[in-house]
Amino acid sequence: MKKMIVAVLAVTVFAGSACAADVMEMKKGVTFKHEAHAEALKDCKKCHEKIFGGKMEGFGKDFAHKKCKECHSEMKKGPTNCKGCHTK
Question: Is the pTM of this model over 0.85?
Answer without folding.
Answer: no
